[in-house]
Amino acid sequence: GAVVSQHPSWVICKSGTSVKIECRSLDFQATTMFWYRQFPKQSLMLMATSNEGSKATYEQGVEKDKFLINHASLTLSTLTVTSAHPEDSSFYICSAHSRGWGYTFGSGTRLTVV
Amino acid sequence: DAKTTQPNSMESNEEEPVHLPCNHSTISGTDYIHWYRQLPSQGPEYVIHGLTSNVNNRMASLAIAEDRKSSTLILHRATLRDAAVYYCILANQAGTALIFGKGTTLSVSS
């Protein structure tokens, strides 16, 4: 089946630094990738939608200058959390969509900002 | 997006069947019914999806009401590894983002 690899699985960073999270579709080409954020005991919240080669579309309330999304190829999307602060600590999850495989999710990245 | 309504939580015993309900009274004709589940600290995992007819796969069965305003995910024999949050989501074929509700937290006891 389709596999989405997300790295790192966890990261601890200092306040004010930037963190990059990678999301790769391993055996299929994803026409669209999605980024979600999940706080403890809450559901997944959609942050942004990205298509290869074009700018990401951000959901209302998500700062595009803080959460930089790059979708350079049909198999790779990255999310960079810039100038991270403790309130950005969360579980970040990517998802890739293709016509053949539907929606496949990464295993998530636990970000802790100290 | 059409919304879904699920019970907050359900309990089951190991090796018993589990029926997880989902109401989606505003479903449109092109909406597929998707079910995903999420174990703690993991990304969501695909369970099953369907449009009009009942569907079966190795994980579960999906029973869809004739008017499509509700559906039921059936786990035939629950195991401890089935304890998770189960999400019922409507999505069309256009590949737009899946929007997650609160889901149903399933507890399984031995």
Describe this structure in words.
The complex is a heterodimer of chains A (114) and B (110). By secondary structure, chain A is mainly β. Helices cover 0% and strands 54% of the residues of chain A. Chain A is built from no helices and eleven strands. The model of chain A has no long low-confidence stretch (mean pLDDT 95).
Q: Provide the helix percentage of chain B.
A: under 10%
State the helical fraction of chain A: under 10%
Give the overall average pLDDT of chain A.
Answer: 95
Shape descriptor of chain A reads globular
In terms of DSSP E residues, the strand content of chain A is over 45%
Structural class per helix/strand content of chain B? Answer: mainly beta
Order of the strands making up the biggest sheet of chain B: 1-9-8-3-4
Say what oligomer this is.
heterodimer
- Tell me how many strands of chain B there are: 9
Distance between the termini of chain B: 38 Å
> Main sheet of chain B, how many strands, which sense, barrel?
5 strands, mixed
Question: How are the SSEs ordered, and which strands pair?
Answer:
The complex is a heterodimer of chains A (114) and B (110).
Chain A: E1 4-7, E2 10-13, E3 19-25, E4 32-38, E5 45-51, E6 57-58, E7 67-73, E8 76-81, E9 90-98, E10 102-105, E11 109-113
Parallel strand pairs in A: 2-11
Antiparallel strand pairs in A: 1-3, 3-8, 4-5, 4-9, 5-6, 7-8, 9-10, 9-11
Chain B: E1 9-13, E2 18-23, E3 32-38, E4 45-50, E5 55-56, E6 61-64, E7 70-75, E8 84-91, E9 104-109
Parallel strand pairs in B: 1-9
Antiparallel strand pairs in B: 2-7, 3-4, 3-8, 5-6, 6-7, 8-9
What is this structure, in a nutshell?
The complex is a heterodimer of chains A (114) and B (110). Chain A is mainly beta and 114 residues long.
Keyphrases for this structure?
heterodimer; A: 114 residues; mainly beta; seven-stranded mixed sheet; four-stranded antiparallel sheet; globular; B: 110 residues; five-stranded mixed sheet; 9 strands
